[in-house]
């Protein structure tokens, strides 16, 4: 029969970097043309959408769908930035506009029906160049979050094993498109027989050439639209052998921008910004933010999270707020600019000793100036802790971790062993930033609201704006 070629082109974790989408489109056009005889499969592995960008926020994801439509994909897998920052209804509305590609994910189902929605399928079998190619999609496992949005999410490796077993007899090649991260991709390769190729994402790893790991080829193309992956395989139908002919990640800097995609993005961006220019609040005075010290805007957000979660204490890192706020009308676009992170409020029960440790760290430059990436954070530096419901007295010149002289909550001294109800942000529960804040005994997440929604509500409350000027940190 002779060897046949399979070509896979892939992108991942673009995170609404619209400026990279025109060269991505041109790169894929050129690569499709290069491999026209093999009829390539073009895949996006998830996190194409990111609500930090006005094009996505103002269009509820439709701007991303419009670009995907024009770029020419065969299938996409929803990442956590699609699944956890947009409701099922919003996703349904967005994906209803898709053209020519499938949305594939095997471990997501609607809680109310126990079935995937009409726009989502667990796998897809494609015929390419005389080969039957089974493509399974999987997304990151965050059950606590998905359940609050009306989803049921299954453990991905178990799902992968089940689906591989189901489709393996009907296909020549099994591809898993994984929004699970490199460690899970390696675990799949080790534990699950029958997977030929894994195209990965989620942890933003770049594999300039594919790995051959535990009998499986593993590929990934970095993040933010910096690369497009190209995989070319030879398959011998008689022997059932798959071999890698070439694998490379092309820098999109080496491709010109597609003018039609540029025009589409300009159009979508202008429409999205217009929608976001509507008023969210009106404030009669400016509210500053300072990443290195207490500030009114930081206090306002901390108080809002405390109220939103009905907690005793509110804690949020100042780095969530990127700019100060001027007096006057505050639009939804301005809120997005100053608080872009798709981060949710949460309620945790924390011991006093863990709270005190975080407060000590909030006085140290190594934490205040700590650069962060991922876990929803779209800022630059961690920043100090902004407080609500607490009074902290400290010696600025004291030794590290021995600066604090007193912490009171509701007029009573903070007790090391007591559990406190703390309103904070989901980011801390993933063990990032102030690590002791991730040691809560119980956690309740609040979805689908972001902390910028909390801030919008706070800005509409004159009493809260007055109270945010009252200090919570006192140097003695």
Automatic annotation (TrEMBL):
Pfam families given for it?
5_nucleotid_C (PF02872), Metallophos (PF00149)
Under the heading PROSITE patterns, the entry gives: 5_NUCLEOTIDASE_1
| Residue span, 5'-Nucleotidase C-terminal domain | 284-426
The alphabetized list of GO BP terms reads: nucleotide catabolic process
- Which Gene Ontology cellular component annotation is one that this UniProt entry carries? outer membrane-bounded periplasmic space
All copies of the Calcineurin-like phosphoesterase domain together span 8-205
Q: Does the keyword Signal apply?
A: yes
- Keyword Nucleotide-binding assigned to the entry: answer is yes
**Per UniProt, which keywords does this protein have?**
Hydrolase, Nucleotide-binding, Signal
What CDD domains does its record include?
MPP_UshA_N_like
- One MF annotation (Gene Ontology) recorded for this entry: metal ion binding
The family annotation for this protein states: Belongs to the 5'-nucleotidase family.
Q: What is this protein called?
A: Bifunctional metallophosphatase/5'-nucleotidase
Species this chain originates from: Paenibacillus ginsengarvi
